[in-house]
Amino acid sequence: MAQTPPPRIAVIGAGPSGFYATDHLVRAGMAVDLFDCLPTPYGLVRAGVAPDHPKIKSVARVFERTAAHPAVRFFGGVEFGEAITRAEMLERFTAVVYAMGTELDARLGIPGEDLSGSHPATHFVCWYNGHPAHAHRRFDLGGAHAVVVGNGNVALDVARMLVLPEKTLRTTDASDQAIDVLAASSLRRVSVLGRRGPVQSAFSTPELLELGRLDGVDVVVDPAELRLDPHSARELAAHGANSPAARRLALLTEFSRRPASPGNRRIELRFLRSPVELLGDPAGERVSAVRTAHNVLEADLDGRVVARPTHRHEVQSCDLVIRAVGYRARPVEGLPLDPRTGVLRNVAGRLVGRDSVALTGEYVVGWAKRGPSGVIGTNKSDAENTVTALLDDLRRGRLNGRPSAAPDEVRAWIRRGVPASFGWDAWLSIDRHERASGEPLGRPRVKLTSLAQMHAVVDRARADAVSDSARLAPRT
Ligand code: NAP
After folding, report:
1. Residues with a CB atom less than 6 Å from ligand 1
2. What is the pTM of this model?
3. Structurally, what CATH architecture does the domain formed by 107-325 represent?
4. Domain boundary assignment for the chain
5. What is the dihedral of CA 226, 231, 234, 236, to 10 degrees?
Protein backbone atom coordinates (compact mmCIF):
# COMPACT_ATOMS: atom_id res chain seq x y z
CA MET A 1 0.00 0.00 0.00
CA ALA A 2 1.33 3.48 -0.90
CA GLN A 3 2.44 5.50 2.14
CA THR A 4 0.67 8.82 2.78
CA PRO A 5 3.18 11.60 2.14
CA PRO A 6 4.01 13.73 5.21
CA PRO A 7 2.35 17.12 5.60
CA ARG A 8 4.42 19.72 3.72
CA ILE A 9 5.12 23.00 5.50
CA ALA A 10 6.40 26.20 3.87
CA VAL A 11 8.94 28.17 5.88
CA ILE A 12 9.43 31.71 4.54
CA GLY A 13 12.89 33.01 5.37
CA ALA A 14 16.10 30.98 5.62
CA GLY A 15 17.68 32.86 8.51
CA PRO A 16 18.32 31.35 11.96
CA SER A 17 14.67 31.29 13.02
CA GLY A 18 13.64 29.67 9.70
CA PHE A 19 16.34 27.01 10.02
CA TYR A 20 15.49 26.25 13.65
CA ALA A 21 11.80 25.95 12.73
CA THR A 22 12.70 23.66 9.81
CA ASP A 23 14.79 21.49 12.10
CA HIS A 24 11.96 21.10 14.64
CA LEU A 25 9.47 20.36 11.84
CA VAL A 26 11.51 17.62 10.15
CA ARG A 27 12.26 16.04 13.52
CA ALA A 28 8.48 15.77 13.91
CA GLY A 29 8.16 13.99 10.54
CA MET A 30 7.06 16.95 8.38
CA ALA A 31 8.45 17.81 4.93
CA VAL A 32 9.65 21.41 4.59
CA ASP A 33 10.08 23.74 1.64
CA LEU A 34 12.30 26.59 2.81
CA PHE A 35 12.07 29.84 0.83
CA ASP A 36 14.32 32.88 0.81
CA CYS A 37 14.31 36.04 -1.27
CA LEU A 38 18.09 35.69 -1.71
CA PRO A 39 19.92 32.84 -3.45
CA THR A 40 22.06 32.62 -0.29
CA PRO A 41 20.74 31.20 3.00
CA TYR A 42 21.36 32.13 6.67
CA GLY A 43 19.73 35.59 6.83
CA LEU A 44 21.38 37.73 9.48
CA VAL A 45 24.21 35.23 9.99
CA ARG A 46 25.42 36.26 6.54
CA ALA A 47 24.05 39.81 6.25
CA GLY A 48 23.85 41.03 9.85
CA VAL A 49 26.55 39.53 12.08
CA ALA A 50 29.61 41.77 12.00
CA PRO A 51 32.36 40.55 9.64
CA ASP A 52 34.93 40.57 12.48
CA HIS A 53 32.80 38.07 14.45
CA PRO A 54 33.45 34.87 12.44
CA LYS A 55 32.82 32.60 15.46
CA ILE A 56 29.18 33.70 15.61
CA LYS A 57 28.83 32.80 11.93
CA SER A 58 30.00 29.23 12.52
CA VAL A 59 26.40 28.37 13.53
CA ALA A 60 25.86 28.01 9.75
CA ARG A 61 27.33 24.50 10.09
CA VAL A 62 24.34 23.50 12.20
CA PHE A 63 21.99 24.88 9.54
CA GLU A 64 23.89 23.01 6.79
CA ARG A 65 23.00 19.76 8.51
CA THR A 66 19.33 20.73 8.60
CA ALA A 67 19.41 21.62 4.89
CA ALA A 68 20.94 18.22 4.10
CA HIS A 69 17.90 16.39 5.58
CA PRO A 70 16.08 14.54 2.75
CA ALA A 71 12.73 16.10 3.78
CA VAL A 72 14.04 19.67 3.28
CA ARG A 73 14.14 21.57 -0.01
CA PHE A 74 15.53 25.09 -0.46
CA PHE A 75 14.11 27.63 -2.93
CA GLY A 76 16.36 30.70 -3.01
CA GLY A 77 15.75 33.90 -4.94
CA VAL A 78 12.00 33.66 -4.34
CA GLU A 79 10.50 36.93 -3.11
CA PHE A 80 7.45 36.14 -1.00
CA GLY A 81 4.54 38.49 -1.66
CA GLU A 82 5.79 39.31 -5.19
CA ALA A 83 6.01 36.36 -7.60
CA ILE A 84 4.63 34.02 -4.95
CA THR A 85 1.65 35.15 -2.91
CA ARG A 86 0.35 34.25 0.50
CA ALA A 87 -2.92 32.87 -0.94
CA GLU A 88 -0.97 30.60 -3.32
CA MET A 89 1.15 29.31 -0.43
CA LEU A 90 -1.89 28.57 1.72
CA GLU A 91 -3.48 26.60 -1.14
CA ARG A 92 -0.46 24.30 -1.46
CA PHE A 93 0.91 23.76 2.04
CA THR A 94 -0.55 22.30 5.22
CA ALA A 95 0.82 25.34 7.06
CA VAL A 96 3.05 28.34 6.48
CA VAL A 97 5.66 29.52 9.00
CA TYR A 98 6.81 33.11 8.52
CA ALA A 99 10.46 33.62 9.47
CA MET A 100 11.04 36.85 7.61
CA GLY A 101 12.62 38.85 10.41
CA THR A 102 12.29 42.60 10.78
CA GLU A 103 14.00 44.13 7.79
CA LEU A 104 12.81 47.74 8.08
CA ASP A 105 14.42 50.27 10.39
CA ALA A 106 12.59 51.98 13.23
CA ARG A 107 12.47 55.75 12.75
CA LEU A 108 13.53 58.53 15.10
CA GLY A 109 10.77 60.80 13.82
CA ILE A 110 12.88 63.98 14.05
CA PRO A 111 13.43 66.80 11.54
CA GLY A 112 16.36 66.18 9.20
CA GLU A 113 16.29 62.39 9.61
CA ASP A 114 16.26 61.89 5.83
CA LEU A 115 19.09 64.27 4.99
CA SER A 116 21.82 62.73 2.91
CA GLY A 117 24.50 61.34 5.24
CA SER A 118 21.87 60.05 7.72
CA HIS A 119 21.33 56.31 7.31
CA PRO A 120 19.47 53.52 9.07
CA ALA A 121 21.78 50.85 10.50
CA THR A 122 20.05 48.23 8.31
CA HIS A 123 21.50 49.88 5.19
CA PHE A 124 24.99 50.26 6.61
CA VAL A 125 25.16 46.74 8.08
CA CYS A 126 23.75 45.07 4.95
CA TRP A 127 26.13 47.15 2.80
CA TYR A 128 29.30 46.13 4.62
CA ASN A 129 28.06 42.54 4.64
CA GLY A 130 27.61 42.54 0.84
CA HIS A 131 23.81 42.04 0.73
CA PRO A 132 22.90 42.26 -2.98
CA ALA A 133 20.01 44.68 -2.35
CA HIS A 134 22.37 47.09 -0.52
CA ALA A 135 25.71 46.64 -2.30
CA HIS A 136 25.03 49.72 -4.48
CA ARG A 137 24.73 52.09 -1.49
CA ARG A 138 27.24 54.86 -0.95
CA PHE A 139 28.54 55.92 2.46
CA ASP A 140 30.63 59.05 2.59
CA LEU A 141 33.21 58.48 5.34
CA GLY A 142 35.24 61.49 4.28
CA GLY A 143 34.42 63.61 7.35
CA ALA A 144 35.79 63.60 10.88
CA HIS A 145 32.85 62.84 13.18
CA ALA A 146 30.14 60.16 13.00
CA VAL A 147 27.16 59.88 15.32
CA VAL A 148 25.58 56.51 16.01
CA VAL A 149 22.17 56.69 17.67
CA GLY A 150 21.14 53.79 19.93
CA ASN A 151 22.61 51.83 22.81
CA GLY A 152 22.27 48.24 21.63
CA ASN A 153 24.72 45.75 20.12
CA VAL A 154 23.93 46.93 16.59
CA ALA A 155 25.10 50.44 17.57
CA LEU A 156 28.33 48.93 18.94
CA ASP A 157 28.85 46.82 15.79
CA VAL A 158 28.44 49.95 13.67
CA ALA A 159 30.77 52.04 15.85
CA ARG A 160 33.42 49.29 15.82
CA MET A 161 33.22 48.77 12.05
CA LEU A 162 33.72 52.53 11.56
CA VAL A 163 37.09 52.43 13.37
CA LEU A 164 38.34 48.91 12.67
CA PRO A 165 41.99 48.98 11.50
CA GLU A 166 42.49 48.18 7.82
CA LYS A 167 44.61 45.12 8.58
CA THR A 168 41.70 43.60 10.55
CA LEU A 169 39.13 44.58 7.90
CA ARG A 170 41.17 42.80 5.24
CA THR A 171 40.94 39.48 7.08
CA THR A 172 37.13 39.51 7.14
CA ASP A 173 34.31 38.58 4.77
CA ALA A 174 33.06 42.19 4.55
CA SER A 175 32.40 43.10 0.92
CA ASP A 176 35.48 44.23 -1.03
CA GLN A 177 33.82 47.54 -1.82
CA ALA A 178 33.00 48.19 1.86
CA ILE A 179 36.53 47.27 2.95
CA ASP A 180 37.99 49.81 0.51
CA VAL A 181 35.63 52.57 1.69
CA LEU A 182 36.10 51.78 5.40
CA ALA A 183 39.87 51.55 5.02
CA ALA A 184 39.97 54.99 3.37
CA SER A 185 37.74 56.58 6.03
CA SER A 186 38.99 59.80 7.59
CA LEU A 187 36.62 59.57 10.59
CA ARG A 188 38.48 60.28 13.83
CA ARG A 189 35.59 60.32 16.26
CA VAL A 190 32.42 58.24 16.67
CA SER A 191 29.82 59.32 19.25
CA VAL A 192 27.34 56.67 20.36
CA LEU A 193 24.21 58.27 21.84
CA GLY A 194 22.09 56.48 24.46
CA ARG A 195 18.81 58.13 25.32
CA ARG A 196 18.79 56.53 28.79
CA GLY A 197 21.58 55.90 31.26
CA PRO A 198 24.35 53.29 31.49
CA VAL A 199 22.21 50.96 33.63
CA GLN A 200 19.58 50.81 30.87
CA SER A 201 22.03 50.41 27.98
CA ALA A 202 21.36 47.30 25.90
CA PHE A 203 24.97 46.39 24.98
CA SER A 204 26.28 43.00 26.01
CA THR A 205 29.36 42.97 28.23
CA PRO A 206 31.60 41.01 25.78
CA GLU A 207 30.83 43.53 23.03
CA LEU A 208 31.69 46.41 25.36
CA LEU A 209 34.91 44.68 26.45
CA GLU A 210 35.87 44.15 22.82
CA LEU A 211 35.39 47.85 22.10
CA GLY A 212 37.86 48.70 24.84
CA ARG A 213 40.52 46.45 23.26
CA LEU A 214 40.53 47.85 19.74
CA ASP A 215 43.93 48.78 18.36
CA GLY A 216 44.42 52.53 17.95
CA VAL A 217 41.05 53.40 19.50
CA ASP A 218 40.24 55.16 22.79
CA VAL A 219 36.85 54.53 24.33
CA VAL A 220 35.85 57.73 26.06
CA VAL A 221 33.20 57.98 28.77
CA ASP A 222 32.34 61.10 30.76
CA PRO A 223 32.23 60.07 34.47
CA ALA A 224 29.49 62.68 35.05
CA GLU A 225 27.19 60.68 32.73
CA LEU A 226 27.73 57.54 34.83
CA ARG A 227 26.40 59.14 38.01
CA LEU A 228 23.26 57.23 38.93
CA ASP A 229 19.93 58.96 39.44
CA PRO A 230 17.62 57.40 42.06
CA HIS A 231 15.70 55.35 39.43
CA SER A 232 18.89 53.82 38.01
CA ALA A 233 20.30 53.15 41.48
CA ARG A 234 17.11 51.28 42.39
CA GLU A 235 17.13 49.37 39.11
CA LEU A 236 20.76 48.38 39.59
CA ALA A 237 20.15 47.24 43.16
CA ALA A 238 17.24 45.12 41.95
CA HIS A 239 19.45 43.50 39.26
CA GLY A 240 22.14 42.63 41.80
CA ALA A 241 25.89 43.08 42.02
CA ASN A 242 26.70 40.34 39.48
CA SER A 243 24.13 41.35 36.91
CA PRO A 244 25.07 42.30 33.33
CA ALA A 245 24.05 45.89 34.14
CA ALA A 246 26.48 45.99 37.09
CA ARG A 247 29.29 44.52 34.96
CA ARG A 248 28.60 47.06 32.21
CA LEU A 249 28.69 49.90 34.68
CA ALA A 250 31.98 48.69 36.16
CA LEU A 251 33.49 48.48 32.68
CA LEU A 252 32.22 51.91 31.71
CA THR A 253 33.68 53.30 34.93
CA GLU A 254 37.02 51.76 34.03
CA PHE A 255 36.81 53.31 30.53
CA SER A 256 36.04 56.71 32.09
CA ARG A 257 39.38 56.56 33.94
CA ARG A 258 41.54 55.68 30.95
CA PRO A 259 43.91 58.36 29.73
CA ALA A 260 43.56 59.39 26.11
CA SER A 261 46.33 58.36 23.69
CA PRO A 262 47.28 61.12 21.26
CA GLY A 263 46.62 60.15 17.64
CA ASN A 264 44.09 57.45 18.47
CA ARG A 265 40.59 57.42 17.06
CA ARG A 266 37.87 57.91 19.69
CA ILE A 267 34.59 56.18 20.38
CA GLU A 268 32.63 58.33 22.81
CA LEU A 269 29.86 56.56 24.68
CA ARG A 270 27.36 59.25 25.65
CA PHE A 271 24.35 58.74 27.91
CA LEU A 272 21.11 60.67 28.53
CA ARG A 273 21.32 62.26 25.08
CA SER A 274 18.60 62.15 22.39
CA PRO A 275 18.94 63.64 18.95
CA VAL A 276 16.05 66.08 18.44
CA GLU A 277 17.06 67.41 15.01
CA LEU A 278 19.61 66.76 12.29
CA LEU A 279 20.81 69.99 10.72
CA GLY A 280 21.78 70.31 7.07
CA ASP A 281 24.67 72.05 5.34
CA PRO A 282 24.01 75.50 3.77
CA ALA A 283 22.47 73.79 0.72
CA GLY A 284 20.16 71.91 3.12
CA GLU A 285 21.11 68.56 1.60
CA ARG A 286 23.78 66.86 3.69
CA VAL A 287 23.76 66.40 7.43
CA SER A 288 26.26 68.74 9.06
CA ALA A 289 25.26 68.78 12.72
CA VAL A 290 23.06 67.11 15.31
CA ARG A 291 21.04 68.88 17.97
CA THR A 292 20.73 66.72 21.07
CA ALA A 293 18.61 67.16 24.18
CA HIS A 294 19.89 66.29 27.65
CA ASN A 295 17.46 63.79 29.14
CA VAL A 296 16.42 63.02 32.67
CA LEU A 297 15.09 59.64 33.73
CA GLU A 298 11.69 59.07 35.27
CA ALA A 299 9.40 56.10 35.88
CA ASP A 300 6.33 55.68 33.67
CA LEU A 301 2.98 54.33 34.87
CA ASP A 302 4.27 50.74 34.59
CA GLY A 303 7.37 51.58 36.62
CA ARG A 304 9.66 51.39 33.57
CA VAL A 305 12.50 53.90 33.62
CA VAL A 306 12.07 56.19 30.60
CA ALA A 307 13.95 59.18 29.20
CA ARG A 308 12.36 62.64 29.26
CA PRO A 309 14.10 65.31 27.16
CA THR A 310 14.79 68.62 28.88
CA HIS A 311 15.15 72.03 27.26
CA ARG A 312 18.92 71.81 27.58
CA HIS A 313 20.20 71.35 24.05
CA GLU A 314 23.61 70.99 22.50
CA VAL A 315 24.61 71.26 18.82
CA GLN A 316 27.62 69.35 17.53
CA SER A 317 28.90 69.23 14.00
CA CYS A 318 28.94 65.79 12.41
CA ASP A 319 29.44 64.27 8.98
CA LEU A 320 27.57 61.00 9.24
CA VAL A 321 24.64 59.72 11.29
CA ILE A 322 23.71 56.05 11.63
CA ARG A 323 20.42 55.28 13.39
CA ALA A 324 20.54 51.95 15.24
CA VAL A 325 17.27 52.18 17.16
CA GLY A 326 15.55 48.90 16.33
CA TYR A 327 13.73 47.21 13.46
CA ARG A 328 10.21 46.47 12.23
CA ALA A 329 8.75 43.74 10.03
CA ARG A 330 8.06 44.58 6.38
CA PRO A 331 4.32 44.72 5.66
CA VAL A 332 3.09 41.92 3.38
CA GLU A 333 -0.37 41.99 1.81
CA GLY A 334 -2.77 40.08 4.07
CA LEU A 335 -0.39 39.50 7.00
CA PRO A 336 -1.49 41.07 10.30
CA LEU A 337 1.21 43.57 11.23
CA ASP A 338 0.88 45.26 14.60
CA PRO A 339 1.64 48.94 13.87
CA ARG A 340 2.59 49.59 17.49
CA THR A 341 5.21 46.86 17.92
CA GLY A 342 6.25 46.35 14.28
CA VAL A 343 5.85 42.55 14.51
CA LEU A 344 3.29 40.11 13.08
CA ARG A 345 0.33 39.93 15.44
CA ASN A 346 0.49 36.51 17.11
CA VAL A 347 -0.30 34.56 20.22
CA ALA A 348 2.54 32.18 21.07
CA GLY A 349 3.48 31.95 17.38
CA ARG A 350 -0.04 31.52 15.94
CA LEU A 351 -0.89 34.47 13.70
CA VAL A 352 -4.06 36.19 14.87
CA GLY A 353 -6.37 38.70 13.25
CA ARG A 354 -7.48 42.01 14.78
CA ASP A 355 -10.14 40.06 16.71
CA SER A 356 -7.36 37.88 18.25
CA VAL A 357 -8.77 34.82 16.48
CA ALA A 358 -6.04 32.53 15.12
CA LEU A 359 -5.63 32.44 11.32
CA THR A 360 -5.77 28.86 10.06
CA GLY A 361 -2.36 27.37 9.25
CA GLU A 362 -0.23 30.51 9.67
CA TYR A 363 2.61 30.80 12.18
CA VAL A 364 5.51 33.06 12.92
CA VAL A 365 8.97 32.63 14.45
CA GLY A 366 11.99 34.80 15.26
CA TRP A 367 12.16 38.58 15.17
CA ALA A 368 8.94 38.83 13.11
CA LYS A 369 7.25 37.14 16.11
CA ARG A 370 8.86 38.75 19.17
CA GLY A 371 10.74 41.78 17.79
CA PRO A 372 14.49 42.22 17.38
CA SER A 373 15.79 40.76 20.60
CA GLY A 374 18.06 38.04 21.90
CA VAL A 375 20.99 36.26 20.32
CA ILE A 376 20.94 33.72 17.48
CA GLY A 377 20.40 30.81 19.88
CA THR A 378 17.29 32.48 21.32
CA ASN A 379 15.57 31.55 18.06
CA LYS A 380 15.90 27.84 18.80
CA SER A 381 13.47 27.65 21.71
CA ASP A 382 11.34 30.37 20.14
CA ALA A 383 10.94 28.24 16.97
CA GLU A 384 10.30 25.12 19.04
CA ASN A 385 7.40 26.84 20.81
CA THR A 386 5.80 27.85 17.53
CA VAL A 387 6.29 24.40 15.99
CA THR A 388 4.74 22.82 19.10
CA ALA A 389 1.64 25.01 18.56
CA LEU A 390 1.55 24.02 14.87
CA LEU A 391 1.81 20.29 15.65
CA ASP A 392 -0.87 20.62 18.29
CA ASP A 393 -3.19 22.30 15.76
CA LEU A 394 -2.44 19.56 13.22
CA ARG A 395 -3.27 16.84 15.77
CA ARG A 396 -6.51 18.54 16.75
CA GLY A 397 -7.63 18.96 13.13
CA ARG A 398 -7.42 22.76 13.25
CA LEU A 399 -5.54 23.05 9.93
CA ASN A 400 -7.21 23.16 6.52
CA GLY A 401 -7.43 19.35 6.28
CA ARG A 402 -6.45 19.24 2.58
CA PRO A 403 -3.42 17.17 1.61
CA SER A 404 -0.39 19.33 0.76
CA ALA A 405 0.47 19.73 -2.93
CA ALA A 406 2.88 17.10 -4.28
CA PRO A 407 6.59 18.08 -4.26
CA ASP A 408 6.78 18.20 -8.09
CA GLU A 409 3.65 20.30 -8.28
CA VAL A 410 5.19 22.83 -5.86
CA ARG A 411 8.40 22.88 -7.88
CA ALA A 412 6.50 23.47 -11.14
CA TRP A 413 4.48 26.29 -9.54
CA ILE A 414 7.65 27.99 -8.27
CA ARG A 415 9.25 27.63 -11.70
CA ARG A 416 6.26 29.36 -13.32
CA GLY A 417 6.54 32.35 -10.92
CA VAL A 418 10.35 32.45 -10.62
CA PRO A 419 11.96 30.74 -13.61
CA ALA A 420 15.49 31.16 -12.16
CA SER A 421 15.16 30.19 -8.50
CA PHE A 422 18.21 28.72 -6.74
CA GLY A 423 18.27 25.29 -5.08
CA TRP A 424 20.64 24.14 -2.32
CA ASP A 425 23.16 22.86 -4.90
CA ALA A 426 23.30 26.34 -6.41
CA TRP A 427 24.08 27.79 -2.98
CA LEU A 428 26.81 25.17 -2.49
CA SER A 429 28.40 26.29 -5.79
CA ILE A 430 28.33 29.92 -4.59
CA ASP A 431 29.72 28.90 -1.21
CA ARG A 432 32.60 26.93 -2.80
CA HIS A 433 33.41 29.82 -5.13
CA GLU A 434 33.41 32.41 -2.33
CA ARG A 435 35.59 30.30 -0.05
CA ALA A 436 38.06 29.48 -2.84
CA SER A 437 38.33 33.23 -3.65
CA GLY A 438 39.00 34.04 0.02
CA GLU A 439 41.53 31.32 0.73
CA PRO A 440 44.64 32.82 -0.95
CA LEU A 441 43.90 36.11 0.82
CA GLY A 442 43.54 34.54 4.26
CA ARG A 443 39.87 35.50 4.36
CA PRO A 444 36.94 33.18 5.14
CA ARG A 445 35.35 34.09 1.80
CA VAL A 446 35.05 36.86 -0.76
CA LYS A 447 31.35 37.47 -1.07
CA LEU A 448 29.49 37.74 -4.33
CA THR A 449 27.39 40.86 -3.96
CA SER A 450 25.13 40.78 -7.01
CA LEU A 451 22.56 38.34 -8.33
CA ALA A 452 24.22 38.50 -11.76
CA GLN A 453 27.54 37.29 -10.26
CA MET A 454 25.71 34.52 -8.40
CA HIS A 455 23.89 33.37 -11.55
CA ALA A 456 27.17 33.36 -13.47
CA VAL A 457 28.93 31.22 -10.84
CA VAL A 458 26.03 28.76 -10.65
CA ASP A 459 25.80 28.50 -14.46
CA ARG A 460 29.54 27.90 -14.71
CA ALA A 461 29.40 25.20 -12.01
CA ARG A 462 26.54 23.48 -13.86
CA ALA A 463 28.38 23.64 -17.19
CA ASP A 464 31.52 22.20 -15.52
CA ALA A 465 29.46 19.39 -14.00
CA VAL A 466 27.94 18.55 -17.41
CA SER A 467 31.32 18.53 -19.16
CA ASP A 468 32.84 16.43 -16.32
CA SER A 469 30.08 13.86 -16.60
CA ALA A 470 30.46 13.77 -20.41
CA ARG A 471 34.24 13.29 -20.02
CA LEU A 472 33.81 10.53 -17.44
CA ALA A 473 30.97 8.71 -19.21
CA PRO A 474 32.10 5.35 -20.63
CA ARG A 475 32.50 5.43 -24.44
CA THR A 476 30.06 3.17 -26.24
P1 NAP B 1 18.35 46.80 20.99
O2 NAP B 1 19.27 45.97 21.76
O3 NAP B 1 16.90 46.72 21.29
O4 NAP B 1 18.81 48.32 21.10
C5 NAP B 1 18.08 49.35 20.51
C6 NAP B 1 18.56 50.65 21.13
O7 NAP B 1 17.91 51.72 20.46
C8 NAP B 1 18.20 50.78 22.61
O9 NAP B 1 19.30 51.32 23.27
C10 NAP B 1 17.03 51.76 22.59
O11 NAP B 1 16.94 52.54 23.75
C12 NAP B 1 17.45 52.64 21.44
N13 NAP B 1 16.33 53.42 20.91
C14 NAP B 1 15.13 52.97 20.48
N15 NAP B 1 14.38 54.00 20.05
C16 NAP B 1 15.13 55.11 20.21
C17 NAP B 1 14.92 56.48 19.96
N18 NAP B 1 13.78 56.91 19.42
N19 NAP B 1 15.89 57.36 20.27
C20 NAP B 1 17.06 56.95 20.79
N21 NAP B 1 17.34 55.65 21.07
C22 NAP B 1 16.37 54.75 20.77
O23 NAP B 1 18.42 46.50 19.41
P24 NAP B 1 19.62 46.31 18.40
O25 NAP B 1 20.87 46.96 18.83
O26 NAP B 1 19.01 46.69 17.10
O27 NAP B 1 19.86 44.74 18.44
C28 NAP B 1 18.83 43.83 18.10
C29 NAP B 1 19.13 42.47 18.74
O30 NAP B 1 20.24 41.88 18.09
C31 NAP B 1 19.49 42.58 20.20
O32 NAP B 1 18.97 41.50 20.90
C33 NAP B 1 21.00 42.50 20.17
O34 NAP B 1 21.58 42.03 21.38
C35 NAP B 1 21.21 41.53 19.04
N36 NAP B 1 22.56 41.69 18.48
C37 NAP B 1 23.54 40.95 19.05
C38 NAP B 1 24.83 41.10 18.61
C39 NAP B 1 25.91 40.30 19.25
O40 NAP B 1 25.63 39.41 20.03
N41 NAP B 1 27.17 40.59 18.98
C42 NAP B 1 25.14 42.00 17.60
C43 NAP B 1 24.11 42.76 17.04
C44 NAP B 1 22.82 42.58 17.51
P45 NAP B 1 15.87 52.19 24.90
O46 NAP B 1 16.45 51.03 25.63
O47 NAP B 1 15.81 53.43 25.67
O48 NAP B 1 14.58 51.85 24.20
Report:
1. 108, 149-155, 157, 194-196, 200, 202, 204, 207, 274, 324-326, 372-375
2. 0.95
3. 3-Layer(bba) Sandwich (3.50)
4. 8-102+329-422, 107-325
5. -40
